[in-house]
Amino acid sequence: MSCQSGSEDLTKSLVFRLHEGTPEIVRDVLLERGWVEFNEEEQDENDWNLYWRSGFSNAEYENIMPWQRLIHYPKIMGITRKDNLARNLKRMSGVYGSTTYNFSPIAFILPNDYTKFVAEYTKDKKANGGKLGYWICKPVDLSRGRGIFIFQDIKDLTYSCSVIVQKYISNPLLISGYKFDLRIYVCVTSFCPLIVYIYQEGLVRFGTEKYSLASLDNVYAHLTNTSINRFGPSYTMDKERVGSGCKWTMSQFRAFLHSLNINEPLMWQKISNIVTMTLLTITPSIPSPPNCLELFGFDILIDENIKPWLLEVNYSPALMVDCNADVIVKKGLLYDLIDLLNYKEVDRLRQRGYPSPWQYNILSRSHPSFCVTNSFGNVLPLHSNASKKANEIWSSSQNDSLLVYRKNCNQSNGYNQSEDQEMDSQKVEEENKSSYTSKQFSHIPSSTGEDSGKNIKKVYSSTGAVSVYCLDPKKCIKNVKPTRSLPKKTLTSQMREKMNRSYIRTQNPVGRVMLLGAKYEQSDGNFHKTGPRFPSVDLQRYQLASFPQYSLSEVDKKPKNRIGDFILTFPFNEITLKASRDPINIRIIMQELQKMPKILQLPKSAKSKSEPHLDSSSNRKECFGSFLWGPRNPPLLSECCFQN
Ligand code: ADP
C-alpha cells in the first residue's frame, strides 16, 4: 500500500496516542471503534485526537488544538492524594458544616497533626468507656494497599513517611462474612460549570478472607484491594455467595441489595451526593482548559447501617483486566467514555478540518476582540510554516509597530479600550517579571519580518481582558490600533468561508467561558467585520466549529442526561446548573443537594402539603431527567422510585 493511501485513511479515522504504560484494553477498545494509533515517524506532531497518558504538562494544556482531547484536567491532586483529600474535606466541613461533610472517616495527616490525633484518640477512648477504637494508617502517596495497617493502641502506630491516620470503619456491611467496597467510575467533562457523569456499572471488590476484628493484621480480611487479594490463598476458591476471585459487577451487587429490605435509592443518592460534594472541594481551583476529561475512581465503603463512606478518590483508576467482571465493566466504560469525549466528524480531519493557525493569526490581528487562545489565555501555537506564511502576508501588507492580541472575555456589552490600556500599562512591568517565557511567543512574526517574539508579553486586566504586547522599547503601547480591516489580497473565498464559520472560544484567567464570533463582508475592496461586536453565545455553532467542553443537548442547552451508561448526576436542575457556573455558588448547590436524600426518605405517597419543597413529583419535573443514579439492573432507580 502506498504512503499516500495510508495517510488518506488516517484523515478519516480518529487517531489516538498512548503512553507506554497504558493498559491494553484502552488500545483494544479504540481499535475496535475504528481508531488508528499515532505513529510518530509518519505523522505530524499535532495529528492526533486523543492523548491517553498519566499526566500532562502546562504547555500541553496550553497548546491543545480544537480536534484534540486530553484525558486529564490539571490540578486534580487536590482530591486524589490522600492528604490533600483529608485537608480539603476538613476545610469544607469547617465552612459548610460537619453534618454535611460527614461522609469521610475523621483523618489526621501525620506527623503535622500528631497532637490533634492524640486528642481525638483520647476523646474516642473516653467515649467508649476506656475501650480502644480502631484506626487505619495509610502512607499518603502510596496506592494499592501498600504500607497500610490497622491498629488500636497508639503505641502500635509507627511511620517513617507522611501518613494519614483515619478512623477505621469497623462495622462494614458484609456479604456472607466478606468485607467489600465499591469502585464507582465518575467522569467530569467540565469543571466550569461542573458537569459530572457517573457510570452505571462499577465494581464491587471483596476481601478474600472472612472479616474479623480479632485479626487486624490479616490484609485479606481487612483490605479490599484486588492487587492484594489476588495473591490471597482463597482467591481462586469458590467462596460462599461471593464465588471465586474477588470482584462482582455493580449489577450483581444490586441483586444482593434486593434481598435486604433497605431504602436502596437513598443509598445511591447519598453516593451521588458524596461524589458531587467531594468534587466541589476542588472545583473553584481547577483551571478549565478546553478538551479535557477526567475519569475518577471513587472508593466507597458501606457500613452495616447502609451509610456510604468515602475512602479514597483515584486518579487514573486501574484498567487492568483480570476477571470477567473487569471485562464487562471496563470495556463498556471505555466505549462510553469515548462518546463522552464528543468528537465531531470534522475532528477526523484534524488540522485540515479547522481554520489553520495562521488564519487564526490574521483574525487575531484584524480586530482587538479577536484572538485565538486556549483557556489559559495563551495564543495558540503556530506551526513554523504557518508562521512563515503569515509573516509573508503581513510584511507585505502591514506596517505595525505593535502587535496586539486582545480579547475581552468579561462582557458581551462592549469593549472599553482606554480602560484596558490604562490597566495594562500598569501591569506590564509586573508581567515582565512573570514566568512567561519569550519562547511561547517566539512564533509571532513582527511586521518588519523580524522575529519580535522575545519582546512579547501577555497582560491581564482586572476585567479579564488579555493582551499580548510587543515590548520593544521603540514600540510603545500608545500605538495600539483598535480595528483594522483584513487585507483583501490575502483572503481566498475558502478562507472567507472558514472565517465566517469560525467561532472562537475564549476564557478569562479565572475560568469564565464565552465565545466570540464574527462575520466578514467585503466593501471598499476590504473585508470588514460585521454584526455585533460581541455576538451572543451560540453554543450550537460552537459545538460544530470549535471544541466542546461538555455535551449540551441541542434542544434545551442542558447537559445530556445520559451518554451510553454514563448518567448525568450533576447538575441535576436549573438551579444547580446556574450555581455551578462561574462564579460558583457552593452554598446554593449544597442546599439543593441536601433536599435530595430528604425526598427519598419520604414515603411514596407523601404529598407536598406539609413540605412543598420536598414534593417528589414536582422535584422530578424540575430535574433534568436523570435525577437518580444507580446501576442499570434492575431498571433506572428514577423509574421505580417516583411512580405515584
Ligand atoms: P489505597 O490507595 O492504598 O488502595 P485505600 O484508602 O483505598 O488505599 O485503602 C485500601 C483499602 O483499605 C480499602 O479498599 C479498604 O478496604 C480499606 N480501608 C481504607 N480505609 C478504611 C477505613 N477508614 N475503614 C475501613 N476500611 C478502610
What does this 3D model show about the protein?
- By secondary structure, the chain is an alpha+beta fold.
- Helix content is 31%, strand content 18%.
- It contains 20 helices and 24 strands.
- The strands form six sheets. Strands 9, 10, 11, 12, 13, 14, 15, 23 and 24 form a nine-stranded antiparallel β-sheet that branches.
- Strand 14 and strand 15 form a beta hairpin.
- Helix 2 packs across helix 11.
- The longest helix has 17 residues.
- The chain is globular.
- The chain starts with a helix and ends with a helix.
- The N terminus and C terminus are likely disordered.
- Adenosine-5'-diphosphate binds next to strand 6, strand 14 and strand 15.
Compact summary:
The chain is α+β, with helices and mostly antiparallel strands. Adenosine-5'-diphosphate (ADP) binds at residues 105, 136, 138, 142-146, 148, 166, 168-169, 181, 223-225, 299, 301, 311-312.
Structure keywords:
binds adenosine-5'-diphosphate, alpha+beta, 644 residues, four-stranded parallel sheet, single chain
